[in-house]
User: Fold this.
Amino acid sequence: MSAAVRPSLVGDTLVMSGRALRLTMRDPVTFVLSLIFPLLLMLLMTASFAKIVYPTGGYSEFVDVGLPAFILVGIAFAAPVTAAATASDLRGGFDARIRTMPVPTLAALAGRLVADTARSAATVAVVVLVGLPLGFRFTVGPWGAVGFVLLPLLFGLGLGFLALLVAVRAPDAETVNATLNPLMLLGTFLSTGLVPKSDLPGWVQPVAEANPFSVVIEAMRALAHGGPTTRPLLEALAWSVALAVGCGALAVRAYRRRSARPAG
Amino acid sequence: MTAAVEAEGLVKAFGDRRALDGLSLRAEAGTIVGLLGPNGAGKTTTINVLTTVTRPDAGRATVAGHDVVREPALVRAAIGVTGQFAALDGGLTARENLVLFGRLMKLGRAAASRRADELLERFGLTEAADQRTAMLSGGTRRRLDLAASITREPAVLFLDEPTTGLDPRSRLALWDAVRELRASGITILLTTQYLEEADALADRITIIDRGRVVAEGTAEDLKRRIGGTVCHVRLADPAEAPAVARALAPLGVASVVPDGVSLPAAGPQTLVAAVRALDDARAAGRLAATIEDIGLRRPTLDDVFLALTGHPAAADGDDEAAPLGRPAAGVGA
Assistant:
């Protein structure tokens, strides 16, 4: 009997991804934060600020330039929800059961990240589809568009690993939210995503420029609209991979250590 | 008989506290073994070692013939575990939980689905099948948790305080389910703080204290070990117990128990002597306690426990090394 019951990294990750996707699709908070919130923000901010930010342009220009930021808003603000759910898994007994089953240690975590990436893809699709009639344009061609879609997924994966690290180390789900939400707020709004750098106060400019959200947004703009692309793209990829690998390694280490401790 | 669980000289320290201090244990295939001990005795740590969650510092253990340290994957394939806290996904329905755990036990999609239906039926969970488990009552969740640990019939099932916090009705229902599992040939290792639970379910009982085994045998063996009968004094106010124990001290080792005082009895004469001693103490003004009941009875496992460990079963000791899971503040996404 037991010969067939072996841990299977691919198979078990798929099963856990299916579970995580089901939970994601069932969660109204995730739906609102990943799909409704970025659209609302795009419509409201365009209506309120487009004429101020671009006095000579207008609504369509604000959408065209701001769209990458709205995509990242949807991806960033849904990440803490998954992380809080993971924290509940770890402390609520679910993880304790998985650890006694013939399942690779990391399948549950990997499943959450797969579902997160699917959720990010839905955000990209919805924001782009609504943005197109409002003024968003791809002017570089199909490969630029492909890159434009994939880059936020990769950065979202980096954010997912960051969120996972917080989830594994935080004492409970509330702490996860309290830690991640301010980070995501700073990341998305203290950036060059919605206002040109030159319009930001002097002391904010270097911070906004160094912010990885700005780096990714600038690379997405280049992929959609042209201009120098290689450098911003490499910087954005470097940030995404660094987040994923750095936070991922720390999260896995912390997760493995949990099993050696007596208490949850 | 062959051993389904065999542990020898297990040691596990957390900091300078030895949760397990040379613990040995054996469960014959197809039996229920009760692991009894107060909080902090090492029950949960024992389960964690045997289920491959915690690595022992020393000693060895095999479960279903596989070494827990060298062949954890094989052990995991052969066991089921039900902990103190229902280890389910609160965001999934009862049925979805069973299918999920069945799939993780490598049942195919169709087989996992069939098995889920079968278990829902068998554990009286058909009405709960399509409800999210976060909405289920405690007793229903425990039954589902038990079902989830046997999606693929295990050789050995670990039940870590399976009825803690349950109402008496749900407890009896769970006991029936456990007996049925034994009848199907599964070896069960059960930890509990409830001596009556071990008495009702276990074929053999191992009593542990401070990470060591202090006694092993059938419930009858253990009761016999401390003698035929006890003289038990039940008090209206347990705070009076020490005074009563002092009054009875000349008759033997009188110990304070949760509801009064208990004294090993040689026969009816002990009862007569005890009544007289209490009367004398009262007359001398050394005793004011209200005695609700005094009489001879067969020893319970509580008495065994007290005699062997020097403290009652339910007393709070050091914090037990808790299982990985704790009650969740929230549920899955």
Notes: The first strand of chain B starts at residue 3 and ends at 14. Residues 1 and 190 of chain B are 20 Å apart (CA to CA).
